[in-house]
Structures are given as structure tokens and as C-alpha cells.
Amino acid sequence: MKAVVQRRYGSAVFGELAVPVPGKGEVLLEVRAAGVDMGVWHLLEGKPYLVRFLGFGFRGPKSPVPGRDVSGVVKEIGPDVTGFEVGDEVFGTCEGSFAEYAVAPVSRLARKPAGISFTEAAAVPISGGTALQGLRGVQAGQRVLVLGAGGGVGSYGVQIAKALGAHVTGVCSTSKVGLVRSLGADEVFDHTVADFTGTYDLILDCGGGRTLSRLRKATVEGGRVVLVGAETGGAVTGGFEKSLFSLVLNLFVKQKFVPLMSQERGEIFDELRVLIEAGDVKPAVGEVFPLSEALDAVDHVYSRRSIGKTVVAI
Ligand SMILES: NC(=O)c1ccc[n+]([C@@H]2O[C@H](COP(=O)([O-])OP(=O)(O)OC[C@H]3O[C@@H](n4cnc5c(N)ncnc54)[C@H](OP(=O)(O)O)[C@@H]3O)[C@@H](O)[C@H]2O)c1
């Protein structure tokens, strides 16, 4: 099969590999599309170095193919699989979606939402799942601020917070203002012109770049700041210490910092399927690249030019 092949960190090529064989609890997918996010860049580069201690491979990547978000069609069923059949259209996550075929654990798959394309479905799992988990507990009428609202996670954050009945403010740079408005944000701040003002019940921080003090002051007493992630933390820890420090700060302040470690599970993707089929969420697909240019797609996301979610269509 054609695939992006990655034998060591910092180096990958477009080439050929044998089609993988599904093991226990897994299915073989004919991949139709693969979502691209900063996580793919981290695993291609092995940076921040902390990721090498998190089970993805210390000296080199465990998976010979990058890519995690996936949509596709079940081609073969491994041992002990129930609930899925050959021919099912699915979406979710796996190791190695930048390929014509990939093996996926069924625990990380759900049925593809009706009424959207495979390209749109592949834009959902990691970013949509992260936003959904970060916004748990939001009540109708609450004020939610989404930092990085025009990016992968933020674009779902705006829509899911609106679906929960919140008043939503998005913060992004100029080229993403139109998208964030179209996603339903009640207010949009272009941070290149003026930074956001006001106080919020929940801040979903997908952009980084603000101090904990700035975030705390913009949150009401009893409110939460969900730290999703940022690319501002350096090559060693990626800013993990900011999350640790926020937990210490929780002992002294009336707001709560919540460093998010999102989970990838079929049940979560199924919740997203329901929101999409109800019309509450629409994947904001930005640029679409062919498989042979998957590494350019990752560069595109890394360069911050990406608006919404970038996808590789196979
Ligand atoms: N905790 C978790 O489980 C989890 C899960 C998924 C992703 N993440 C992390 O969360 C972050 C957001 O993910 P994403 O997929 O939404 O990324 P994304 O698509 O790149 O969007 C992030 C947005 O943040 C802003 N941004 C990017 N770099 C910035 C910088 N250096 N300073 C200030 N703002 C910056 C950009 O918006 P503007 O250009 O409009 O400013 C961009 O649209 C990433 O760091 C990712 O690795 C964490």
C-alpha cells in the first residue's frame, strides 16, 4: 500500500509498506481520509521530548506510519471484534492513518455520521473529542471564551459551547475571524487588533500565549480555565510545567485550572456523531491535501496558516 513511512523521528517519506493485519479487538480500514493536527507534528519530530516518555517510542516512533484521526470503510475484522462488520463506514483514531490501509482498535471507532463526507468525518475525532471533554459541565447561559477559536479544537469548542446554550466569545487572528463568526460565536476578538476583555465562566485555552494570571483574572470566582494546549512551551516539556504550576495555583485561588488530557474513545466519537447528525456541529474543514502531500499538510498546520481543520484525503 502507499503510505507515509517514518522510521525515525525527524524524517519521513512517501513510500510503500505491506498492508497491516488486524489483531485482537482491531479492524483493517480502507482509509478514506486522515485529519491533521499538531499532535501529528509532535510524533513526527519526537518533540517535545516528553512525548518519547509517553509510550510513542523513545529512540524512534513505535508506529511506522504517522497520522491518528481516521475515517474509512471496514475491510477485515480481527479476532474478538463485535459490533462492527465488513463494509461499515467509521471514524475515530488509530496509529498510522497516513496510508491507504490502517489497523484501528474498535474501542476507538464509531459509525461515521450520516450526511457528511469521509473528509469531514476525519476532521472530527481528536479535535472534536478534545473540545467536547473540555466543555463538560457547561450550563446554558454561561459565558464561554475560546482562545484559538479558528483552529482545530477551537472550531469545535465554539460550536459545542453554543449547542450547550452558552454565550460564546472567540479569540483568533484576522484570517480566522470570518470562520469563527460563521461557527456561531456571539462575539469575536481579533487578537492582532485588541486582546479580549470581560470575564467568563469557562475559558477553553487552545492557543496558549496568555499567562495563568491573565487567564485567572478573566474568569469568574468558581469558574474554570481548561488548558488544552499550546505550542509556546519549548522543545523539552512543551510547557507541561505550566500545567503543573496551575495545579499548585488551584490551592490558592477561587478559579479552577484544569489541564486537559483528552481521551480517544468510541463513546466520545459517538456523542460527536449525534451532535453532527442533529446539525449542532459541522466540521470546519480547511485545506485538503492528497496522501502524497501529507507531509506538506503537517507543515501547513505547523506554520499556523491552517484555518479550521486540515485533512489528507486518500
Ligand atoms: N490536551 C489535549 O488532550 C490536546 C488535544 C488536542 C490538541 N492539543 C493541543 O492543543 C493545541 C491546539 O490544538 P489545535 O489542533 O486546535 O491547534 P491549531 O489548529 O493549530 O489551533 C490553535 C490556534 O491557536 C493559535 N495559536 C497557534 N500558535 C500560537 C502561538 N504560538 N501563540 C498564540 N496563539 C497561537 C492559532 O490561532 P490564531 O492564529 O488565530 O491566533 C491557532 O488557530 C495544540 O497545542 C495541540 O497540540 C491538546
From TrEMBL:
SUPFAM superfamilies: GroES-like (SSF50129), NAD(P)-binding Rossmann-fold domains (SSF51735). Residues 10-312 form the Enoyl reductase (ER) domain. Keywords: Oxidoreductase. SMART domains: PKS_ER. PANTHER family: ALCOHOL DEHYDROGENASE RELATED, RETICULON-4-INTERACTING PROTEIN 1, MITOCHONDRIAL. This is NADPH:quinone reductase.
